[in-house]
Structure formats: structure tokens, C-alpha cells
Amino acid sequence: MAELKVSKVKRGTVIDHIRAGMAPAVLRILGIDRGFSDVVVVAMNVKSSQLGSKDIVKVENQILDEETLKKISIIAPQATINIVKEFEIVEKRGVSLPKELRGILKCPNRNCITNAAEKVESFFVCKQENPIEFRCHYCEELVEAERAELIL
Amino acid sequence: MTDQHWKNRDVISIHDFSREDIETVLHEAAGIVPNPDLLRGRVMASLFFEPSTRTQLSFASACERLVGQVIGFSSGEVSSKAKGETLADTIRMVEGYSDVIVVRHPLEGSARLAADTADIPVINAGDGANQHPTQTLLDLFTMEKFSGKIDGLSVGMVGDLRYGRTVHSLATALTRFKRIKLRLISPPTLRMPPSVLRELEGKIEYAEQEELDLTGLDVVYVTRIQKERFPDIEEYEKVKGTYVINAEVAQQLSPTAIILHPLPRVDEIHPEVDALPQAKYFEQAKAGIPVRMALLKLLLLGEDR
Ligand SMILES: [Zn+2]
């Protein structure tokens, strides 16, 4: 297979080492859909020595805030975030899995108080890391990160 | 230190209970006697957003035996809910009228929300399909009382292990003890959920089976199989008949074994079993009183008093 060429980003963020298949979820977290005007480059199922295969998302002009990084860490815990300026990586960092998530995951239990008229902010606590699993602070339902529905 | 640990504590989920915590409650419950001075002047608010006469009466009786006062409501009389008041607001209001809140609510997580909202202790009397910790504590109390110990017991759970909240919590609680053997007896469609089984992993030796074989068990915990769980009525009738404890089935048990059931039962334990020495389910229901008395005492006064 020919080496994959993905155009370089001048200024923005490159999210690398996303587990293969999770790029669309990352796009959703970033709020990238039809109304989005900056350049976005998505590569999926790229060969990776670390992960076997991986996805990459490059977004021009975007610098990600802490909340967004938290959300990415849930679905792509191995992701690395590269900040690019003038085609050069000026900062490289990993994401770290938060111990607690407030207002980020939607509880899959429909009978949970957080899904009632009560307007209680969802609150999950990390229960286990491999695979990543969170427990609803309220109804105690266990949620696998990969299947989690994010509140966006 | 222990005093601080109990005073003002909430009782929401068996997940919050260590072995030492469970032992403290069982120990208090074993020694507690009606006392006209213990909770004099204290008020327990009993908020039942869904009816459960049995649990409500048990809490009220426990409180009154320690001469505390009971205020509250049971669904049907509820006005705040009809007016659209949130649970959190109801709790904030009731907190001003009472020293401890007992809450039962149809939504899972409601009791935790109540506890997070109130500064005074909150006891979960059942939050939907999630937790009912005082039931688990009284189950353990009954086991210890009649089996003499909990460590090393062979426990059989029979019936609906999938939807039955009592068996999930009891299984979790048993992981706090040593050398427990668990036999999970249910139809294939009503097996213990994987999330509960994973909690047992490495802590309890368990086996799942369909056959109603009770030989060698110290404790048989029977649950009701509900018709609503089956799409097919014929399948239900077949399964229901398979998991009935009658006098003949009970012959598999040793004389010192005990049969428990969270009650109310329907057909899963035949009335002819009631007269057998192993039948302890009515004793189990009675155990709700000392266990709830012990909890009220611990939460309001602390451990050393
Ligand atoms: Zn929940």
C-alpha cells in the first residue's frame, strides 16, 4: 500500500492515535458538522505501530479547551494532541482520563434521576481503566466508555 | 473516629458498605432493645413517593420503639409531586422539619440525589430497581442469626436473578465475606447480569445452573418470578412451576439450612414449607425492625453510646 499523504495543517490541532473507527465520534465532540467552515482532514484506518491501525483528525484554526480534551479522552484515551503553528508542532500532549465526569456522559438508564424532569447534571465516576468504564453516581449503572453517549 | 464514621452518615447503597460497616450494623441490631430515651425528641421523615406498606411500617415501627417521632407521606397523599416540585426541593423543605430522612422513590439514583442535597442523614428505602440497602442488611442479619456466621456459607439464589434487586445487592454484600460459595439457580433468561457477576470475580466462588438442586446449601434465597418478564405466557407458566420450593424439594436441605425470601411471596414457596424448621422468611421480615433501629441509632447518635 502506498504511504498515505494527508495534507499538512498550517495552524491548528492534530489529534493523532485515535483508535481506529472513532474519528467520527471525535468530530462530533469537536462540533464539526455541516455548518463548520474551517478545513478538517480526517484519516481513518491508518497503519500504526502502537495501535495496529488508527484514525487521525486535523482541524485548522482550532485550539481545544479542557472540556473538549476530557471528552476526547473518554473515547480515545491513547490520543495525542499536537498543536501546530506555521506547519510546525509547537506542543505535543496526551489526554488524561478524568476520575469524574460532570455533565459529559448521558446515563443510558432511562429510569435514572438524571434523565428525569429533575434537571440533575449527570455525574459519572471512573470505575476501571481497561476497558474504560464509568459508574453513574446516582443510579450506579455501569457504562463502557466506547458505548457512552456524550452530552454535546 | 468510629463515632464520626456513623453519625450523620447516609445509607444509600450496599456498595458504600465495607465488611466492618456491615458488622457494626449487625452487632448493633443484635443488641438493640426498645428504649424510651434513645431518640426522644428526634423526628424521622418518611417520604414514600411510591407505596411500600411493608417497608414504611417497618421503619415507622423501628423509630417509635426508640421513641422518635415519624412524619411523612406515602404516594397518593403526595402533593408536592403533583405541583411539580422537584425531589431536591422537597428534600430541602423536609430537612427543616426532621433529623433523618427515609426516602423511597421510583427513579434510580433518587436516594443519592436526596443524600447529596440534605445535610441530615438519608436512608434509601428503595430507589427504583437500584438499591434497597436496609433489605440487604436485614438479609445478612437473618443469615448470621440462624447460621451463626456469614463467612464460609454456601448460599443458593433461586428464581429471577436478572431483575431482582435484592439478590444483586446481597451478592455484592457477600463479596465482603470470606469463603462464600454461591449457587445461582435460574432459568436461562433470568440469569444474574454480567455487571453483578463481574463484582463476584475473584471474591466468591459461584456457579450458575438451571436445575433446582439445593443439596449442600446453608442458605436458600428465593425470589419471585414475575409474569411481566416473559413475552410468552406458556414459557412463564413452565418456568414458574420449575422454581417452586415445596416440602419435597425442601427435603434436599439439611435441618440447619435456612430458607429466605424478601416477601411478599406468591407461589414460589408452598405454604406447607412454612411449618418446616428451615423456613425463616417471616423471621427475616421481623429482622427489619432491629436492623432499622440500629441504623437510626447509629446515624443520629453515632456508634459509642
Ligand atoms: Zn444514572
From TrEMBL, chain A:
* Gene Ontology biological-process annotations: 'de novo' pyrimidine nucleobase biosynthetic process; pyrimidine nucleotide biosynthetic process
The UniProt record lists the Aspartate carbamoyltransferase regulatory subunit N-terminal domain at: 4-95
Residue positions annotated to bind Zn(2+) are: C107, C112, C136, C139
Q: Name one Pfam family in it.
A: PyrI_C
The residues covered by the Aspartate carbamoyltransferase regulatory subunit C-terminal domain are 101-145
Function statement: Involved in allosteric regulation of aspartate carbamoyltransferase.
Keyword field: Metal-binding, Pyrimidine biosynthesis, Transferase, Zinc
Q: Which domain of life is it from?
A: Bacteria
Q: What is this protein called?
A: Aspartate carbamoyltransferase regulatory chain
Q: What cofactor is this protein dependent on? A: Zn(2+)
Gene3D superfamilies membership: Aspartate carbamoyltransferase regulatory subunit, C-terminal domain, Aspartate carbamoyltransferase regulatory subunit, N-terminal domain
Q: Which GO CC terms are listed, alphabetically?
A: aspartate carbamoyltransferase complex
Q: State how the cofactor is bound.
A: Binds 1 zinc ion per subunit.
Listed under subunit, the entry gives:
Contains catalytic and regulatory chains.
As recorded in Swiss-Prot or TrEMBL, the protein's gene is named pyrI
Q: Which GO terms describe its molecular function?
A: metal ion binding; transferase activity
Q: Which PANTHER family match?
A: ASPARTATE CARBAMOYLTRANSFERASE REGULATORY CHAIN
Q: Enumerate the SUPFAM superfamilies for this protein.
A: Aspartate carbamoyltransferase, Regulatory-chain, C-terminal domain, Aspartate carbamoyltransferase, Regulatory-chain, N-terminal domain
Name the family the entry cites. Belongs to the PyrI family.
Automatic annotation (TrEMBL), chain B:
PROSITE patterns per the UniProt record, alphabetical: CARBAMOYLTRANSFERASE (PS00097)
- List of residues binding L-aspartate: K83, R165, R224
**What top-level branch of life does the organism fall under?**
Bacteria
Give yes or no: UniProt keyword Cell inner membrane: no
Residues recorded as binding carbamoyl phosphate, renumbered to this chain, are R54, T55, R104, H132, Q135, L263, P264
Q: Where are the coiled-coil regions? A: none
Top EC class of this enzyme: transferase
Query: Domain Aspartate/ornithine carbamoyltransferase carbamoyl-P binding, which positions?
Result: 9-144
This protein's pathway reads: Pyrimidine metabolism; UMP biosynthesis via de novo pathway; (S)-dihydroorotate from bicarbonate: step 2/3
Domain Aspartate/ornithine carbamoyltransferase Asp/Orn-binding stretches = 151-298
Keyword Flavoprotein present in the record's keywords: the answer is no
Q: Which UniProt keywords apply?
A: Pyrimidine biosynthesis, Transferase
Entries under Pfam families matching the protein: OTCace (PF00185), OTCace_N (PF02729)
Please give the Gene Ontology molecular function terms for this protein. Answer: amino acid binding; aspartate carbamoyltransferase activity
What reactions does this protein catalyze? carbamoyl phosphate + L-aspartate = N-carbamoyl-L-aspartate + phosphate + H(+)
Query: Among the record's GO biological process terms, what is one?
Result: amino acid metabolic process
This entry's Enzyme Commission designation comes to 2.1.3.2
Q: Which PANTHER family match?
A: ASPARTATE CARBAMOYLTRANSFERASE (PTHR45753:SF6), ORNITHINE CARBAMOYLTRANSFERASE, MITOCHONDRIAL (PTHR45753)
Entry similarity comment: Belongs to the aspartate/ornithine carbamoyltransferase superfamily. ATCase family.
Subunit structure of this entry?
A: Heterododecamer (2C3:3R2) of six catalytic PyrB chains organized as two trimers (C3), and six regulatory PyrI chains organized as three dimers (R2).
The name this protein goes by in its record: Aspartate carbamoyltransferase
